[in-house]
User: Fold this.
Amino acid sequence: MKPWFSLSLLVLSVFYFTYGIYSLDLLTFTGRLGPGFFPFVVGISLVVLTSYNTILAFKEKKTVLASGVDDNESGFIPCSFDVLYLVLTVGLFILLLNVLGGLLAMLLFNLSLLAVFNKGAHLKNISFSIGISLAVYGLFEIWLKAGLPEGILGL
Amino acid sequence: MIADIFSNLALGFSVAVSPANILFLLIGSVVGMIVGLFPGFGPAAGIAILIPMTFGMDPTSAIIMLAGIYYGAMYGGTITSILINTPGESATVASTLDGYPLAKQGRAGPALVMQAVASFVGGTTGVILICGLIPYLASFAASFGPTEYFLIIVFGLLLLTTVMGENKINGIVSALIGFAIAMVGVDIISGMQRFTFGSPELIGGIYFVPIAIGLFGMGELMYCIYQGQHRLDPEPMRIGFRSKNFWPTKKDFTDSKYTFVRGSIIGFVAGLLPGSGGTIGSIMGYSVEKKVAKDDSKFGKGDMRGLVAPECANNAASSGSMVPLLSLGIPGSGSTAVLLGAFMMWGLRPGPMMIVEEPEFIWGLIASMYLGNMALILMSIIAIPFFVKFLDVPYRFVVPIIVMLCVVGSYTLHGSIIETWIFLIAGLLGFGMKLYGYSPAALVLALVLGSMAENTLLQSLIMSDGSLLIFFQRPLSAIMTSVLILLIVGPYIGRKIRRRVSATTETRNA
Amino acid sequence: MIKTTKLLKVTAATMVCAFASIASAEDYADYPSQSLNFTIAFGPGGGNDTMVRSLVEVIRKYELYPEDIIIRNREGGSGAIGWSYVNQQAGNPYHITSTSGNFIGTPLVSNTDWNYESFTPVGLLANDALVIAVAADSEFSTLEDFVNEAKNRRVTIGGIGAAGPDRVVAGLLQDSAGITLEYVPQQDGGQLLTSLTSGSVDAVLGGPSEVAGQVDAGNFRILAYSENTRSNIYPEIPTFVEQGYDVVFSLPRGVMLPADVPEHTQQWWIDTLQTVIQTPEWQEGYLQRNGLSGNPIWGEEFADYLDDTNSKFESTLREIGAIR
Assistant:
């Protein structure tokens, strides 16, 4: 995965750099450093360093693959699926925030997350989800009047 | 001078000692300790997550509470270092070296009590030293113009990148990403919009709080799940006051009486330097202690001095870094960067003029730090058995609580769903950065300081009509530039001279 | 169907915004009979926020508005987001907002779906004029000294923002005195002050209340005030005009309704605000404490004033290249 992380940083850097140089002036019309100067410097340094990192990461991967040694020296099995599931549920949570309103979205998020992270214990999961959602809702909406989204039911 | 300090402190206590402020101080300290307990959640994440909760509060109470989280986390962070060899954050790494061996020898109780005492001594020494330094800094702070600000920011950023992580390139990339994000929005100097893609939501720039919540909160959370923390059922721990071996022995104290002094002073100085902070302070404190000790054979195997030194140091450093934060507006670490953002959100711009214009606030905050440290030592000793229970809550139940606080917190900042998405993206970025050895703290620091660095440089160049000589012409700038150049070039020259000397001695010997 | 409409009316207090469009056909004969949404396009603590909260406090105290008033800060994009929200409430007199310098400036420099003409003007309640200040130990004791020096050497002047009111005043002074000033944009009030205390710039432009502390401490000297007549709060400060320079500029601190609201609702607010500004709470608690001069104008006259301010802004921004 490391090469791909480096690569995506590189792609973003290239985008930042090209958009910056395309949309901003390097110098002002009086000849001073303009709004585009620092984005230019930051952008080009990012492009150079992230390309270096990307090349390095792909080379590393090659040697690891060639030597046939697993790069997990500690031997633990990363829970990649659980991380992915967490990100998806959080994304859905944010997506539903304005639709369902704060309280319902929180409840749904808790239930779906615990359904996978704490399999089987349905009753415990449900009571925990209701309790904790109400607590956070009470804290932000009632005590702090922070203004959570209301959603269709006005909750 | 001393009379001034006392009158200032009296003013501070008159502000800090109100029922509401004391309540928020206690809440902040307790929350800080709890936040410090969870692996991966340092003060930076704690403050960032709880900023939204301070809305609708009086700014002074809000900052007192957030500052309480900041130093409270230093107390709590060590508990996991000692008990389960898992530092809550980088500043408590050094405390695992002797803390965990002590716990394994069955001296967890004394170790925990000693760390609370050491934290108290370090924290309080730090606050006393702040009182002495802040007025002094204020008197010449008004002579800080854009030129001097630029230099001090460069100083801070320079120290940061040199101390940040093992992989220098990743550290620089992290900081550059922070700069890149800092440039989104309307440019102060030219009035032009940059990287806004025509969206009105981005005109004001990307706000740092959702980024900080994402990087520290969500990123760490994902990392812990990646490692399978949520699948583990923590082993219950048992520690009680009545246990014979709960309290430290007399020997523990007499052995380490000078350690308290050394650790506190080293930590405070480290905290003063922007970019250094608790991590460097605690590691320096530990290594100096080991060098000074006559018999260092037990270090690393459970020497009480090896726990006291880093604990004094990281708490003194957390006070020490308040000095550049309050008097210059320069945060010395990731957590103070988040704190600076919170100050700015309240319309308080830490810096030279704040000491002159908001003495009640500054001295109220300092007074609250005295009270906070006193409250914390009591609470941390009373609460040791109780806090240990927190580790019994399975991580899979901790996850949804933190996620909800993060998401709801990001949303309620400005009621913006876009900022909530920015939080999630920052979380993904933070996870990747943690996984592959980048530095989220460098990113946040660059994000907070980035636009200031650019603005002050461009302001200086407008003032000087484009000439870089301005950094030598103003007396204060000239001194700062020289120090800066010395810091950058010094090590290289030093190495060269050493090489030449060793070369000549070799030829002589030959 | 009838039942649903009834239900809507019951929950209207909390959902006015969502169902505003349904109600837009009404003529609001019984105005005001619902709760009012007061949008502040900036965060808590700023000049806009202070004005609205002082205003609402007076309205509540004298019970001038019969229903609830809900104040909401919708910050972001130098006002772009908040005013865009109010603009979308066209036709609904239960929404109201306040103005500031950004009300003119933001639409000029960025793509907003509104500008100052997209709203119904109620009134200008206060003027936030600017002053030019120099260090007390500087060689400038009058504005004339400053202008003369600017003819001999490069003179720098600090102000907040690249394209804000401070820049406009600097531009107006340059034009009327025939000089060139090197304008140094500053981030905020604190930086503005230190740029002068540290001797980094020769002069600064800022609000009278911003520099008042330093003036009282004997560090700064004020050279001129940017309104037509002297301020009633700082009567000792001469204006630019009386010193022979045609510099008249101030920030409009006013109140606006969305576009297309019934005329009688606009009149209702003009009448109500005319009562508000007579109260001692407004005169002393707001104007005096914030160093503002009250020179209120209403309705169409306010619209003309905005036109004038807008053209001054636009020409300065064009000159410095912030807009093309």
About this structure: The mean pLDDT of chain C is 83.
